[in-house]
Design goal:
Layout (H helix, E strand, L loop, with lengths): L21 H11 L5 E2 L14 H9 L14 H13 L10 E5 H13 L5 E6 L3 H9 L3 E8 L5 E2 L1 H6 L5 E7 L11 H13 L3 E5 L23 E7 L11 E8 L5 H13 L5 H4 L2 H6 L5 H4 L4 H15 L3 E2 L8 E2 L2 E2 L1 H4 L4 H12 L1 E2 L1 E2 L11 E4 L4 H30 L1
Parallel strand pairs: 1-13, 3-4, 3-6, 6-7, 7-8
Antiparallel strand pairs: 2-9, 4-5, 8-9, 10-12, 11-15, 14-15
Helix pairs in contact: 1-14, 4-5, 4-8, 12-15, 14-15
Length: about 425
């Protein structure tokens, strides 16, 4: 009897997430064989020795017995009130507990926000490079991701005029990731005002991924988009995973502001989708109030002498010494996005090179093309390892590129002969 294959959805053929993809799986195989892999592929503070602030953990412990039943589908009222208070302090208008949602991380809320908005064929403007979940969720919810360029030559900032030229009759939303993953760019106020104006004039929903809002270096300043766009609908997404190093708690939130009055149908859709998953993790929600009202625990890590600052410095120093690499100086977030000078190295396929780096140097990083860019000579690394580990990683990267350049030179000589 003929056996029919169990096929996956064809939409998955357009989805990529190499941060936890083929290379990460290969790294696990190598570790299972006893090899030590230096991992720079993911912004997961807990695996690099960072701890959740004690006052968050203590709040969960105190409320553990109150965590055994479902809560309201949008999240604990006191937690949502703390989120609203933070947004009001930042200048957001028309924020309310009723239009604030807590999710199992920002990832779940990105999916819900797009699912409630999109009809088949609707378009979403997504940065390139992007955090690939935005493109994936757009596709999986029947939309089309239209990527607007954030070029290395412009510090990975978008050109507002070029972005606006990409808006069409089916464009529904504009995604802004600030501070940016994967590049570390922090958007200046004047640029955000331009983007807010574009969204307002074209009646676009502004979807603002601000999960790294307090992870800033040097004199970088974070500007909340919500206070700059009072006349269009703004979705601000943030959470505890990065600033508070609580990835495993899976706590994110979505707060609506601006023109909420004309978004009641959309709000009803969000409430319905929130109800369908019952509620987010109740236990971890108790950490939201102390996180938003307690002491600042991130600045000591990002100022000079702090662990993240010094690891970032180690990346910049290593790139400055490299014969092959350049990088736009990260002003925020947990990453750098170096580029390889192919005039020196020869042509590079970022995925093939990253696999070779893993196999020969035991270093795991993420190819740049995973972030929905058309070029293949960049890669992303995280600043979370200690500075000496960063230095060792980049020494191995340099060795790998030296070998790659030598192979290319040898092949070119053979071709000429």
């Amino acid at each position: 009897m003929h056996q029919r294959a169990y096929a996956a959805s064809p939409r998955l053929s357009e989805v990529r997430y190499e941060i936890r993809g083929e290379l990460a799986h290969r790294a696990r195989d190598l570790e299972a064989r006893g090899q030590e892999i230096l991992r720079l592929n993911i912004g997961n503070p807990g695996v690099y020795g960072f701890s959740v602030p004690a006052h968050l953990r203590e709040a969960i412990e105190r409320n553990l017995a109150r965590s055994e039943a479902y809560c309201v589908e949008q999240g604990l009222n006191e937690a949502r009130a703390a989120i609203v208070a933070q947004q009001k302090r930042r200048g957001a208008l028309h924020v309310a507990v009723e239009t604030t949602f807590i999710g199992n991380g920002v990832s779940e809320l990105i999916d819900i926000a797009l699912r409630a908005l999109l009809a088949p064929g609707d378009e979403v403007l997504v940065p390139s490079p992007d955090y690939p979940l935005w493109t994936a969720s757009t596709i999986l919810n029947g939309g089309t991701a239209v990527h607007y360029e954030c070029s290395a030559g412009n510090g990975f900032l978008p050109d507002p005029d070029a972005l606006e030229a990409q808006i069409g009759p089916r464009t529904r939303a504009l995604v802004v990731i600030n501070p940016n993953n994967p590049t570390g760019a922090v958007y200046p106020r004047a640029l955000l005002e331009r983007l807010a104006d574009i969204a307002t004039r074209h009646r676009l929903v502004l979807m603002c991924d601000e999960i790294y809002d307090q992870v800033l270096y040097d004199d970088a300043t974070f500007e909340p988009m919500a206070r700059l766009a009072p006349d269009t609908l703004v979705l601000t997404l943030s959470g505890l995973s990065k600033v508070h190093r609580a990835c495993g708690y899976r706590v994110g939130w979505l707060s609506l502001s601006g023109d909420v009055r004309h978004a009641q149908d959309y709000v009803h859709g969000l409430v319905l989708l929130a109800a369908l998953r019952l509620c987010s993790n109740v236990t971890a929600q108790w950490s939201i109030v102390p996180a938003l009202t307690g002491p600042d625990t991130i600045s000591e890590l990002t100022r000079p002498g702090g662990r993240m600052f010094e690891s970032r410095r180690a990346i910049l120093d290593a790139v400055a010494r490299s014969r092959f690499l350049s990088v736009s100086r990260p002003a925020g977030a947990l990453y750098a996005f170096p580029g390889i000078d192919t005039a020196r190295s020869g042509p590079v396929d970022d995925h093939a090179w990253a696999l070779d780096l893993l196999e020969t140097e035991n270093v795991l990083l993420v190819p740049g093309s995973s972030f929905n860019v058309p070029y293949r000579n960049h890669f992303r690394v995280t600043v979370l390892p200690q500075a000496p580990v960063i230095a060792e990683v980049f020494a191995r990267i340099e060795r790998s590129l030296e070998r790659h350049a030598a192979r290319h030179a040898g092949a070119r000589q053979v071709a000429v002969a």
